[in-house]
Amino acid sequence: MTHNALLTRTDKTLPARQLAQSLVQVAVARGAGEQKLLRGTGIFSEDLLTAKPLSCNQLQRLCGNATQHYKGFDLAFQFGHHLVSAFVNDALPYFTHARNFGECLRALPSFQTRLYPFVSAFRYDEGDDILLVLQDAMGSGKQFRFMAEAYCAALVALARHCTGKRLALHFSFPFARPRQIQEYEEGLGFRLSFEQPFFTIKVARAELATPCLQPNRMFKQFALRRFLEQREYRVTLLDAVRYHLRRNSNATLPAIAGELDLSPASLKRKLADHDTTFSLLHDDIRRQQAIYYLQVQKLNNEQSALKMAFTDITNFRRAVKRWTGQTPSQLREV
Question: Which PROSITE patterns match (predicted)?
Answer without folding.
Answer: HTH_ARAC_FAMILY_2
